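ugh ok fine here u go
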Amino acid sequence: MTQYSPQSLCPCGSEQTYGECCQRFHRGEAAPTPDALMRSRYSAFVLNLPDYLRATWHPDTRPDSLSLENGPQWASLQILDHSQAGDKGAVHFRAIYRLGDGWGFLEEASEFEREAGRWYYLQGDTREGTLKPGRNDPCPCGSGKKHKACCL
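structure:
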């Protein structure tokens, strides 16, 4: 597990500290909604927590093993839409990552299912692409600054 301070802002972009947000789920507390589970799973990718990712993956679709070595350098998460109806949930998100000297994104419409009071990631429809932010656009890293004043 990558060491991450509970006082640092959570990687999921919630604007809460890691200790107030995803850390409790990484330590075993059940995420209360599909959105919270998605955020905690994104944070697990950032923090290199493959065991958490496998534990929150539905047993019917869970891979036998999961390595996060040589994965992208994740920069920010945008939740585009989310819904819940009974024990089914969906989250549409876009995760931004560094791509060489530029930026890429992974966009996914994810499906979740609740069993015995716990939400699990079931599957997702993904697409990837390259981002080309303008100098005056918000920086893709999620800092809130203009791209020209941050990561350009």
